[in-house]
Amino acid sequence: MRRPPAPLDRLLGTPAWLMVVSGALLLLGGGIEVGFMRKRSMRPYMRLMLACDGAGALAAVGGLVVA
Fold first, then answer.
1. Which of 19, 38, 53, 61 has the fewest Cβ atoms surrounding its Cβ within 10 A?
2. Which of 26, 21, 24 is nearest to 9 (CA)?
3. C-alpha separations of 12 from 4, 19, 50, 55, 65 in Å
4. What is the rounded CA–CA span in Å between residue 37 and residue 19?
5. Which range, of 5-9, 11-15, 43-47, 60-64, averages the lowest pLDDT?
6. Exposed, middle or buried: residue 49 (CB in 10 Å: 0-12, 13-18, 19+)?
7. 19-65 tens-digit pLDDT
């Protein structure tokens, strides 16, 4: 008999509420990026988006190294 998969919060070692809040903030940040795209020209927006996403990727790598 197969065991059911463990809940994601137990696998990651974080509270479930923290993952829900993080997901909501990610969605909010995406909505803000789309809002900026409508108000600004595309060239500066792309630079800002690449810088923000690059910083997020570096932070994720740093978190993985520390963990």
1. 38
2. 21
3. 16, 10, 28, 23, 15
4. 27
5. 5-9
6. middle
7. 889 889 989 988 887 787 777 677 777 788 788 889 989 999 988 88
Instruction: Quickly state the pLDDT bin for 5 (edges 50, 70, 90).
Output: low
Check residue 59 and give its pLDDT. Answer: 92
CA dihedral sign, ordered 35, 41, 46, 52: negative
- Name the one residue in this structure whose structure tokens are 């520390």: 66
Rounded to the nearest 10 degrees, what angle do helices 42-66 and 16-39 cross at?
Answer: 160
